């Protein structure tokens, strides 16, 4: 793409990369520029600045929206001819309750019918009740059915009959690989059933897709963006290959596929992920001999569950909004925003409304439907798109070398890849290098949480109708995981302790000197241990060891944190600890800070541990709870 030579603001001189570099280094006040380079969870380095040279050689930069390989979208006019479908999931298994909720939501802005995993419409009578007063030909239909789509389609056929069946559009998502990853088993004849369903729906319901490629179980288990892309591509290739073996044409198969991708917390990475997966899938379909039209990915995006928290749950609104915006900017056909209270079970009407309104605001007030590929040309996003594509292609080849997705699941290759990515996230959260507001940082111990409602089922539909003679393909299922769960367990232990003892587990603050000397470390200590549900007892500062010891003993707290400056520590810590433990031998003594020159001396005096900015917040809270018997 040729760079424009004319300068829009001729009164200003152009700044070079060196100018920006020097200004950045100056702002760092002595720290090296390389400190700003970070390694993404996806495995490659992310630079602090990008420029036009970084994307000059990318082949897709010469394409326009609607042009192969569709990195800039599958339509030349973006959302202008048709906005994305607002496809909020309704997870009410009772047909009457489902009908009432669906009518309510459709009247208030929802534009597609999205039936969640928890819903079991096993017969025509259920559908008659669930869709009473709703014309299924007027709204796109999204059913995430995994390997049970054939039975659902059979019921839908009986409900609609031929006259309306041909008008139904959307997707009944047949995704047996996702079922295998989520449940751990699937019948060996699923690809025969997939082919039969595809043929039948192709004749009766030409606008209804029947093959889905879902990534939510992998994302929930901890997968990074590279892994999600590679897994989705490998799953799609599995379905293409299996259907071609059964005599179907690549255009027929690809044209009946819909990808269901999850977006997470890293805004720009998620925008780039959506662009990259569309680009790579288009190239794969072409390699299979498919037409450019069939290479256009149909994409449904849902916001994540793994980064949603039970504590400070209203922050989940902000998280979901960022994720929804990433999806809309990346370019999707339909979008699903998780309600903020989803970790507590079935969302209520209020939380469903807020989640739905996020999409309405993005569409009607932010006016994202007026923009065509707003991320296009961004040096950062375009570079990320290429980095993701390159890395995902390498992993995709590794999965194929395993024998494809099913073999990679059975061998545990997928599990080990995802577990490695999850471990990195948990390590950073434990050390608070990543932040979950209200959970591992800035906790509010006095908040009132929503009550637990009927929890979602595991998304496993009834398999009792499976033929006992059919051989089952088995693999170890992946485990969905919310990143806040370890910290939530700490808080739950603290709450149990409070209910049993009338007070939360307490830590006394032994502050030495004037406020200006101890406040910074006192505030750090408070934030550090409130994460574990501890109550910090603050009675001010102390000028003498004797007064501090007496106040600590009088508090009755089983643990104490000493707060002051390193200079002050040298004169008071040994005497304070020895005098305190002479009266209260079992008390746990912790020092805020890590004065290298005196650590060994302080340990010999009786200091049990040190908290500081590099300490593992989760492990130290858990260890202290264990020592004090909290949660037992």
Could you explain how this protein is built, in words?
The chain contains 21 helices and 18 strands. By secondary structure, the protein is of the alpha/beta class. The chain has 2 domains: 59-430, TIM Barrel, CATH 3.20.20.240; 486-628, Cobalamin-binding domain (Rossmann fold), CATH 3.40.50. It has a 9-stranded parallel beta sheet. A 5-stranded parallel beta sheet has the order 15-14-16-17-18, with helices on both faces. It has a two-stranded antiparallel ribbon with strand order 1-2. Helix 8 packs parallel to helix 10, helix 11 packs parallel to helix 12 and helix 16 packs parallel to helix 21 (617-628). It is globular and about 90 Å long. Mean pLDDT is 93; it is low at 456-465.
List the helices and strands and how they pair.
Elements lengths: L16 H11 L10 E2 L5 E2 L38 E2 L2 E2 L4 H12 L6 E3 L8 H7 L10 E6 L2 H17 L4 E5 L1 H8 L1 E3 L2 H15 L3 E7 L1 H6 L3 H21 L4 H5 L2 E7 L3 H21 L11 E5 L11 H16 L3 E3 L12 H16 L14 H23 L3 H7 L1 H18 L41 E3 L10 H17 L4 E7 L2 H16 L4 E8 L2 H11 L3 E5 L2 H18 L4 E5 L6 H7 L3 E3 L5 H12 L4
Parallel strand pairs: 3-12, 4-5, 5-6, 6-7, 7-9, 9-10, 10-11, 11-12, 14-15, 14-16, 16-17, 17-18
Antiparallel strand pairs: 1-2, 8-13
Helix pairs in contact: 2-3, 3-4, 4-6, 8-10, 8-13, 10-11, 10-13, 11-12, 16-21, 18-19
Key terms for this structure?
alpha/beta, TIM Barrel, Rossmann fold, nine-stranded parallel sheet, five-stranded parallel sheet, 21 helices, 18 strands, 12% strand
């Amino acid at each position: 793409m040729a760079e424009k030579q004319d300068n829009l603001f001729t009164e200003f001189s152009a700044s070079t990369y060196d100018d920006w570099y020097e200004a950045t280094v100056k702002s760092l006040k002595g720290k090296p520029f390389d400190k700003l380079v970070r390694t993404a969870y996806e495995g490659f380095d992310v630079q602090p600045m990008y420029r036009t040279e970084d994307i000059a050689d990318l082949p897709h930069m010469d394409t326009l929206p609607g042009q192969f390989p569709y990195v800039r979208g599958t339509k030349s006019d973006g959302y202008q001819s048709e906005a994305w479908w607002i496809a909020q999931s309704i997870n009410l298994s009772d047909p009457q309750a489902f009908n009432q909720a669906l009518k309510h939501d459709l009247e208030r802005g929802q534009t597609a019918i999205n039936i969640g995993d928890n819903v079991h419409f096993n017969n025509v009578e259920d559908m008659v009740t669930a869709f009473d007063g709703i014309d299924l030909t007027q709204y796109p239909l999204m059913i995430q059915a995994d390997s049970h789509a054939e039975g659902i389609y059979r019921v839908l056929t009986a409900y609609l009959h031929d006259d309306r069946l041909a008008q139904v559009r959307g997707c009944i998502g047949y995704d047996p690989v996702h079922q295998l990853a989520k449940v751990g088993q699937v019948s060996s004849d699923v690809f025969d059933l997939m082919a039969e369903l595809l043929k039948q729906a192709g004749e009766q319901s030409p606008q209804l897709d029947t093959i889905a490629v879902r990534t939510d179980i992998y994302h929930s288990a901890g997968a990074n963006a590279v892994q999600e892309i590679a897994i989705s591509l490998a799953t799609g290739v599995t379905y293409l290959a299996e259907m071609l073996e059964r005599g179907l044409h690549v255009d027929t198969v690809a044209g009946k596929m819909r990808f269901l991708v999850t977006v997470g917390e890293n805004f720009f990475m998620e925008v780039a992920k959506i662009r990259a997966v569309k680009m790579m899938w288009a190239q794969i379909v072409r390699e299979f001999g498919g037409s450019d039209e069939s290479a256009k990915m149909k994409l449904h995006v849902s916001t994540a569950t793994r980064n949603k928290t039970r504590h400070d749950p209203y922050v989940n609104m902000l998280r979901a909004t960022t994720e929804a915006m990433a999806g809309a900017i990346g370019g999707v056909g339909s979008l699903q925003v998780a309600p903020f209270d989803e970790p507590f079970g079935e969302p209520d009407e209020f939380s469903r409304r807020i989640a739905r309104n996020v999409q309405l605001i993005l569409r009607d007030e932010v006016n994202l439907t007026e923009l065509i590929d707003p991320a296009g040309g961004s040096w950062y996003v375009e570079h990320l798109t290429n980095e993701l594509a390159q890395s995902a292609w390498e992993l995709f080849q590794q999965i194929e070398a395993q024998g494809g997705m099913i073999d990679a699941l059975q061998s545990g290759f997928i599990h080990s890849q995802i577990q490695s990515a999850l471990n990195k996230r948990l390590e950073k959260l434990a050390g608070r290098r990543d932040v979950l507001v209200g959970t591992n940082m800035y906790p509010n111990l006095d908040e009132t949480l929503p009550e637990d409602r009927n929890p979602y089922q595991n998304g496993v539909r009834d398999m009792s109708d499976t033929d006992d003679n059919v051989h089952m393909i088995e693999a170890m299922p992946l485990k969905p995981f919310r990143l806040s769960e370890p910290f939530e367990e700490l808080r739950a232990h603290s709450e149990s302790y409070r209910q049993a003892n009338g007070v939360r587990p307490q830590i006394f603050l032994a502050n030495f000197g004037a406020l200006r000397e101890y406040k910074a470390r006192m505030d750090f200590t408070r934030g550090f241990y409130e994460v574990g549900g501890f109550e910090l007892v603050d009675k001010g500062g102390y000028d003498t060891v004797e007064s501090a010891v007496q106040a600590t003993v009088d508090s009755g707290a089983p643990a104490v944190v000493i707060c002051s400056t390193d200079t002050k520590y040298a004169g008071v810590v040994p005497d304070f600890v020895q005098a305190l433990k002479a009266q209260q031998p079992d008390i746990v003594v912790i020092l805020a800070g890590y004065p290298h020159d005196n650590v060994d001396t302080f340990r010999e005096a009786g200091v049990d541990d040190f908290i500081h900015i590099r300490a593992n917040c989760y492990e130290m809270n858990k260890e202290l709870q264990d020592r004090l018997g909290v949660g037992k």
